[in-house]
Design a protein that fits this description.
The chain has eleven helices and 14 strands. The protein is of the alpha/beta class. The protein has a single domain, classed as Kinesin (3-Layer(aba) Sandwich), CATH 3.40.850. Strands 1, 5, 6, 7, 8, 11, 12, 13 and 14 form a nine-stranded mixed β-sheet that branches. Helix 2 packs across helix 4 and helix 8 crosses helix 10. It is globular. It starts with 11 loop residues before the first strand and ends with a helix. The relative contact order is 0.21. The chain binds adenosine-5'-diphosphate (ADP). Adenosine-5'-diphosphate binds next to helix 3.
Length: 361
């Protein structure tokens, strides 16, 4: 029996750029368009005088399904083969991170044959792909999900069953869920609710519950959702028989991360570790930038331990994992500075050459 699929895989980080359409307000005020994308050369240019950036894939004003089919289907396939994969949405608040990850519809509202509405985002599509595949296979499987939020380096379990009240939440915030090494290069969150699910619709119900809890917590505790990260993880075990009659267990995990707005760190903050203003520092986002820089520059020390997010995702950045960063930008001139920052970040992340020997330091 093997605890992990034996197939050796090359590792990579895929970076996509998604430019949202103009908002009604931008259309009304005739906001000039400053982002142009050449989908053939995969070059992005911002205004006339700024050099282009090469990104793996570019999507402008696209359909949710196109992005999913082109970029995410192969990643979910990897997870079903027993690998850890992470999909991040990174970008300025208001550029489409939540639209990309969740979509605009009620997630659970699928059609009579279980088909998803056109606006469904990456998460519901991935859930559907996973269950369609598992249900079509003749193998035993189990699926577990966790859903958490990170705000000011505190973890909130979005699937915890207790009634949500201000008191309960404040209590919970005092007793932060602690992180522990799992002995396999990853970390566990002690006390985090792990729900075993048997169908896509069960996951949709849990997602609804978690999102509702996130919204209520935001109102009760005066949080700003633009400063929090959400991490939804799906872990799949599949028991298969090899042609030689041996039992093989494949275990893969898909992490789906809606990051805090990138305006929470400045351009120089992402690059040099300096934040624009003390009040704007978002430690996890900043550290994610540093981890990416350290991986790109092949530094001996990768500072995974410096923030909760990077500790949680340590087994998903570098090493034998696949990572997809969907960077989201606005086409409008008033977002120019943040758009450049996002492009810098995306461009540097694209150049990560994973070297397993440096990733576990
Ligand atoms: P963020 O999560 O980055 O703060 P949202 O996902 O809330 O941003 O998107 C902001 C607004 O832009 C929403 O009204 C959303 O519907 C719209 N939007 C974002 N991306 C797209 C897109 N690719 N196509 C159509 N509308 C989009």
């Amino acid at each position: 029996m093997s605890g992990r699929h034996e197939k050796e895989k090359g590792v990579n980080v895929q970076v996509l750029l998604r430019c949202r359409p103009f908002s009604d307000e931008e259309l009304r005020t005739n906001a000039p368009q400053v982002v142009s994308c050449n989908e053939y050369s995969r070059e992005v240019s911002v205004s006339q005088n700024i050099a282009g950036k090469h990104i793996d894939r570019i999507f402008t004003f696209d359909k949710q399904r196109d992005l999913y089919d082109q970029a995410v289907i192969p990643i979910v396939h990897e997870v079903l083969e027993g690998f850890n994969c992470t999909i991040f949405a990174y970008g300025q608040t208001g550029t489409g991170k939540t639209y990309t990850m969740e979509g605009e519809c009620k997630r659970s509202k699928s059609g009579p044959k279980g088909e998803l509405p056109p606006e469904a985002g990456v998460i519901p599509r991935a859930v559907k792909q996973i269950f369609d595949t598992l249900e079509g296979q003749n193998a035993e499987y189990s699926v577990k999900v966790t859903f958490l939020e990170l705000y000011n380096e505190e973890i909130t379990d979005l699937l915890a069953p207790e009634e949500l009240s201000r008191v309960a939440l404040e209590e919970k915030q005092k007793k932060q869920l602690p992180l522990m090494e799992d002995g396999k290069g990853g970390v566990l969150v002690r006390g985090l609710e792990e729900e075993i699910v048997t169908s896509a619709s069960e996951i949709f119900t849990l997602l609804e519950r978690g999102s509702a809890k996130r919204r209520t917590a935001e109102t009760l505790l005066n949080k700003q959702s633009s400063r929090s990260h959400s991490l939804f993880s799906i872990t799949i075990h599949i028991k298969e028989a090899t042609p030689e009659g041996e039992e093989l267990i494949k275990c893969g995990k898909l992490n789906l991360v809606d990051l805090a707005g990138s305006e929470n760190i400045s351009r120089s903050g992402a690059r040099e570790g300096r934040a624009r203003e003390a009040g704007e520092i978002n430690k996890s986002l900043l550290t994610l930038g540093r981890v990416i820089n350290a991986l790109v520059e092949h530094l001996g020390h990768i500072p995974y331990r410096d923030s909760k997010l990077t500790r949680l995702l340590r087994d998903s950045l570098g090493g034998r994992t696949k990572t997809c960063i969907i960077a989201t930008v606005s086409p409008a001139v008033h977002c120019l500075e943040e758009t450049l920052s996002t492009l810098d970040y995306a461009h540097r992340a694209k150049n990560i050459k994973n070297k397993p020997e440096i990733n576990q330091k």
